[in-house]
Amino acid sequence: MALPQTYTREQRIWHWTHWGIVVAVLLFLVLPILVIVPLSFSAGSFLSFPLPGLSLQWYQELFSSDPWQLSFRNSIVVAVATTLLATFLGTLAAMGLNRADFPAKSAVMALLISPMVVPIVIVGVGIYFFYAPLGLTGSLLGLTLAHTVLAVPFVVITVSATLAGFDYNLVRAAASLGAPPVLTFRKVVLPTIAPGVVSGAIFAFVTSFDEVVVALFLTGPGERTLPRQMFVGIRENISPVIAAAATLLILLSILLMATTELLRRRSARLQGRE
Amino acid sequence: MTVSTATALTGSDLKRRLRRAEWRGRLRAIALVVPLLLFLIFFFIVPIARMMWLSVDNSELPSTLPRFAEEIQQWDPTETPLPDESVLALFAEELRAAAEARDLAGVARRLNTEVPGFRTTIMGTARRLPDSPEGSWSETLIGINEDWAEAETWLLLRRASTTVTPYYLLASMDLRMGAEGGVEAAPRDQAIYRDIFARTFTIAVGVTLLCLLLGYPLAYKLANLPARISNLLLILVLLPFWTSLLVRTTSWIVLLQREGPINQALQGAGMIQDPLQLIYNRFGVYVAMTHILLPFMVLPLYSVMRGINPALPRAATGLGAHPFTAFRRVYLPLTTPGIGAGCLLVFILSIGYYITPALVGGANDQMVSWFIAFFTNQTVNWGMASALGSLLLVAVLIIYWLYIRLVGVERMRLG
To answer: Among A97, A121, A157, whose Cβ lies nearest the Cβ of B354?
Structure first.
C-alpha cells in the first residue's frame, strides 16, 4: 500500500504506528487462542513449552475416557434440542415482531432480548431455585429449557435482521397471483429469511454447547456437559487433555463461524446490500 | 377489478374492512410472538421474580412455629429480660412437634445464616425438650442450653418471626437492623459487600476502557480499508467471538502461568530474573476479560465507522485543519454512537462475569456473581444469594434501559 506523496513525515510516522497498533491488537485477539493447539500434541503431561515430544496420547485419552464421552454426548443432545426449540420459537416471534404496527414493539423486543444481558449467574440461580421444588434439577430436559432461554435472543436478532430488508410487496405479489399463505411462506418468505434462520440456529447451538454457568447449577455427575467437564478439569488438574478438547472446540468454532459468515454475505447479496 | 369492487362499496364500508383486515394482521402477528413470550415468562421472568422474592422471604419460622411467631412479637425486651412463660411454653410445644415431624431444617438454616452455629443450638434443644417443664419452661430451656438465658437469642427468634425481612437486602449493603429498631452499619468483620460491589464496578469500568483503548484504533483501521481486506481481518476479530469462553480462559492460564511462554520470553530476554506473577491476580482478570469482550467493542464501532462518509474528515483537512484536529473535531464526534453502544454492551456483559475471574483471579478478584454462586451452592444461604442477585439485576437493568434509550434495541447486532 503506497502512501500518498503528499504525506508529511509526521503523517507517515502516524500511519505506521497505527498499523503497528492494529497488528498488535489482532495478534492479542488471535494468538492466545492458537497457543493451546500445539500443547494438545505434547508427549509430556504439562501444559508448558517447549514440548518434550509429539504424541496423540491426549486425543486417545479424550476419546476413550468415559466421563469425556458422556459429557460430549450430553452436550450434543442438549445443544441440538435447544437449537430446535429456540429456532422454532425465535423465528415465529421475529416474524410477528417485524410488523410495523406491532403493539409496544420496542418493549416486547427488549424483553425477548433481555436473557442476553441479564447476568448468567442470575438466570442460573433463578432457574435453580425454580426447578428445585419441581424436581427438574439434574435432568437434561431442565438444562435444555434453561439453555433455550439463553439462546432465543440470538435467533430473534438474526432473523429480525434478515427480515428488516425483506420486501413485503413480494408477499402481496404472491397473494395477488393466488398463492395461499402457507405456499407464499414456503416459496417466498422462507428462502429469503433462511440465512438468518440458519445463522440463528448456529448461534443457538453454540450458546448451548459453550454454556457452563447454568450447567454448573443444574447438572449432577450424570448430566455433566462438555464445558462443565472442562471447567472441573481446569480447576482440579489441568492436563493436555483439556488442550485436546479445546483444539477440537476451536476447529468446531472455525467451521461454524465460516458457515455463518458465508450465510451473512449471501443474505446481504440477496438484499442487494453488497 | 379493484375499481369495480371499490365502487360497489361506500367509503365508510371500505374503511371498516380495511381496519378489520389490519386488526386481523396484527392479531396474527401477536399470535406468532405469544409462544415465545409465554415460554420466557415461565422459564425466565417467573424464576427471576421468585429469586427476588426470596431476598425478602422469611417464612421458615412463621410456617413451622406459627403461634409462637405471632406471640413473640408482643415481647418487649426493655420490660422483661425473657419472653413470658406462656410464650416459652408455646415455643417448647411447637418446637417439639416440628422436631417430631422432622420439619426443623428450614428454621435451623434460617437462624444459622444470622448466627453461625445456631443450627446446633436449636436442633439440640429440640431433641432434649421434655414433655412437661422441670420447674418453669425458662429454667428447663436454660438447663438444656445457656443461650436461652440471653435476650439476644430471643431477639434473633423475634427477627426471624416476621414473614418478610429486610435482613438479606440490608446485609448485602453492609447494613443491619439495630437491636432497638432502625438501621445501622454492620460490624466491620461482616461488612464486605460494599467492597465487592465496588470491586465489580471497578473491574467492569476497567475492562470497558481497555476494550475501547484497543478496539477504537482497530475498528478505525478496519473501517477505512478496502472491503476485501477488512472482511478478511474482521474474521480475526470474529474468531475469538466464536471460540468457547473456556477455551480462551484455558489459553490465558497456559500463557500467563509461572512457567508460561510470556515469563519464559521475558526471562530469556533478560528483562526479569524471577518469573512474574501474572495470573491468579487482578492483572490476569483484566487481560482475560479484555480479550473475551474486545469483539463486542470492535463490532459496533466498526459498523458505525463504516457508515461515516470519508469525505468529511478529508474536507476538514482540505480546509486547512491539522489531521489530528480533523479527527478530534469531525471524526470522533461522529463515532460517539458506536463508542456508546460498545461501552454499554461491554460494561453490561462484564459486570456479571463469573467463570473467567473464578479461573484466572485470586481470592480478592472475585466479582458479585461469584458470591451469588457461593451462597447458592456452598452455604445454601438462598436469602443472601437472592439479595445480591437482586441488587446486581437492578444495576444491569438500569444500564440496559440506558442502552435501549440511547442506542436502541434494534441496534443489537451480532457479527
So the answer is: A121
